[in-house]
């Protein structure tokens, strides 16, 4: 299996791994936390968190001496700042077992702690053995192992999630993966893949026109492939396409494409209004939620079946207000 290696049934809310300190747990080296109120209070009710603190779970106490990465950024050591105690083996052994277990937990994403020597996903400081200025080429020991073991898993850190575009992209991918797990839980088949792909077409197009075309060709050739190969290739290409940024220009292309489904229904005033709203979004005068809301109005008014099934028009819970800021 690809998106859901364990084959467990995807039910309820998406499961997201998260650094425990971001939920307000006092597990940092100084006994503090790094509470992120959006993650806990806004996103939290719509997902199921799997909290992880590598330091505590590998046997270190709270409070504890601060640690940092030292040596080769490609394979750094984890050492305490003052005493120089090497904790690499202790952390690595725990991380390997924890990551192996997480492969069967049905995760749809992970939010790491920025800059952490255990949980930083990128740009973690790595200090030279002989002293001097650190590089920013490191990854936390736990984060690196999780990302290598589950390369298609949507991941971000708390710092990058302050960007509205990155936040929307991450959460969108989380819900796409949750729906993929739902497909797998019912049993993968070409027919179910066609339905899944059809409902995600405009969503993929907003990220990558080439990905949209490539996935379409893959599905069309699905009957000539064994199901395991088809499943793996589709999921990989899907998640790689969705990693690409959904720019304003790409979104305008999708909105215009969607507008084409109403060419026989809209009167001249309605057509002009929709064009003006899409144009205002294209000039970044209004957020994406404005043209999407108008499109959803016409979907309901004219009972347009294809667009009513498109996840692009409602990719995640409206309560998150993610498209109010992109």
Question: Summed up, what is this model?
Answer:
The protein has 326 residues and is of the alpha/beta class. It is built from 12 helices and 8 strands. The longest helix has 23 residues, at 164-186.
Q: Count every helix, treating DSSP H or I runs of 4 or more residues as helices.
A: 12
SS-derived structural category = alpha/beta
Q: How many strand elements?
A: 8
* Assembly form of the protein: single chain
> What share of residues is helical?
40-55%
Low-confidence stretches: 1-10
Note the main sheet: 4 strands, parallel
Radius of gyration, whole Å: 22 Å
Question: Strand order within the widest sheet?
Answer: 2-1-5-8
Order of helices and strands: EHEHEEHEEEHEHHHHHHHH
Q: How far apart are the first and last residues' alpha carbons, in Å?
A: 34 Å
Estimate nothing, just give the exact number of structural domains: 3
Strand content: 5-15%
> Could you say which overall geometry the principal axes of the C-alpha atoms support?
elongated
Q: Tell me, rounded to a whole number, the average pLDDT.
A: 95
InterPro entries: 2-thiour_desulf, DUF1722, UCP037004
Domain DUF1722: 201-317
Pfam family, one: DUF1722
Commentary on this structure:
With 326 residues, the protein is an alpha/beta fold. It has three domains: 15-160, no CATH class; 166-243; 252-324, no CATH class. Helix content is 45%, strand content 11%. The protein has helices at residues 37-43, 54-57, 88-102, 141-149, 164-186, 190-205, 209-220, 227-243, 248-259, 268-282, 289-302, 305-308, and strands spanning 15-19, 48-52, 67-70, 77-80, 107-112, 124-127, 135-138, 155-157. The strands form two sheets. A four-stranded parallel sheet has the order 2-1-5-8, with helices on one face. Strands 4-3-6-7 form a four-stranded mixed sheet, with no helix packed on it. α1 (37-43) links the parallel β1 (15-19) and β2 (48-52). α5 runs antiparallel to α8 (227-243) and α7 (209-220) packs antiparallel against α8.
């Amino acid at each position: 299996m690809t998106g859901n290696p364990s084959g467990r049934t995807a039910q309820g809310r998406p499961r997201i791994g998260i650094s425990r300190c971001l939920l307000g747990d006092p597990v940092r080296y100084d006994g503090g936390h790094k509470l992120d109120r959006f993650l806990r209070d806004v996103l939290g009710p719509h997902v199921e968190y799997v909290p992880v603190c590598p330091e505590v779970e590998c046997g270190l106490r709270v409070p504890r001496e601060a640690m940092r990465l030292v040596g080769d950024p490609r394979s750094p050591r984890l050492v305490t700042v003052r005493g120089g105690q090497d904790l690499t083996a202790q952390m690595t052994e725990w991380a390997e077992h924890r990551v192996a277990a997480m492969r069967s937990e049905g995760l749809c994403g992970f939010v790491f702690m920025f800059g952490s020597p255990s949980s930083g996903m990128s740009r973690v400081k790595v200090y030279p053995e002989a002293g001097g200025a650190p590089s920013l080429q490191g990854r936390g020991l736990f984060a690196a192992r999780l990302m290598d073991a589950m390369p298609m898993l949507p991941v971000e850190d708390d710092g990058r999630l302050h960007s509205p575009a990155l936040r929307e992209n991450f959460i969108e991918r989380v819900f796409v993966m949750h729906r993929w797990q739902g497909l797998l839980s019912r049993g993968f088949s070409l027919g179910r893949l066609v339905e899944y792909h059809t409902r995600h077409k405009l969503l993929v197009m907003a990220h990558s026109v080439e990905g949209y075309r490539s996935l379409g060709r893959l599905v069309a050739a699905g009957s000539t492939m064994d199901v395991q190969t088809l499943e793996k290739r589709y999921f990989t290409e899907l998640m790689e396409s969705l990693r690409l940024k959904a720019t304003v220009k790409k979104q305008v292309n999708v909105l215009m494409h969607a507008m084409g489904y109403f060419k026989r229904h809209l009167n001249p005033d309605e057509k002009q209004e929709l064009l003006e709203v899409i144009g205002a979004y294209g000039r970044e005068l209004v957020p994406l939620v404005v043209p999407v809301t108008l499109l959803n109005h016409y979907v309901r008014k004219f009972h347009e079946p294809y667009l009513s099934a498109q996840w692009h028009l409602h990719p995640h819970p409206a309560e998150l207000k993610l498209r109010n800021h992109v």
